[in-house]
Amino acid sequence: MMMIEQLVTSFIASAAFGLIFNVPKRTLPHCGAVGMVGWLVYVIGMQLSAGAIAATLMASVAVTVISQLFAKQYKTPIIVFSVSGIIPLVPGGLAYDAMRNVVEDNYDLAVQLAVEAFMISGAIAIGLVFSEVINQIIKGRGKHAIDRYAGRSDRR
């Protein structure tokens, strides 16, 4: 039962941020679905003892892949879906706890929480970029860049 509540909450949060970001009204349910799937991947990762950082990385890759599919299907920019979909993964509560511990002079705990929030934020960014790079390679657009970095060229 708790899982259903979390999924519904992540759907609502993602769709609500879609409203705040003025996404097209027809894409609001899809924005919510992207956030819900991202949260589902995160929860499954946590249940598999992957850790918060690895679970966030997996979830952000899933969010980007689904966002790419929706962007292509509905002919809208990928950012419409990815920004709204990433919202449930943002470590806002962790950052709040870090700042609260700074105010309460618990600096050791504050630094630990801040580092974890920073690493989770980095995992989100890496997941978004990694998924986009893989997508470009699959589409073939990244082939020339890979050849260039590997020292290969089309010139004979």
Give the tags.
156 residues; mainly alpha; globular
Structure description:
The longest helix has 33 residues, at 107-139. Helix content is 79%, strand content 0%. It has one domain. It is mainly alpha-helical and 156 residues long. The termini are far apart. It contains seven helices and no strands. Helix 2 (28-47) packs antiparallel against helix 3. It has helices at residues 2-20, 28-47, 52-74, 78-86, 92-103, 107-139, 143-150.
| Total count of domains | 1
Helix and strand content put the structural class at: mainly alpha
- What is the 3D form? globular
Order of helices and strands: HHHHHHH
Number of helices: 7
- Stretches with pLDDT under 50, minimum 5 residues: none
- Strand count: 0
Question: Summarize this, please?
Answer:
The chain is mostly helical. Helix content is 79%, strand content 0%.
Secondary-structure map with pairings?
Elements: H1 2-20, H2 28-47, H3 52-74, H4 78-86, H5 92-103, H6 107-139, H7 143-150
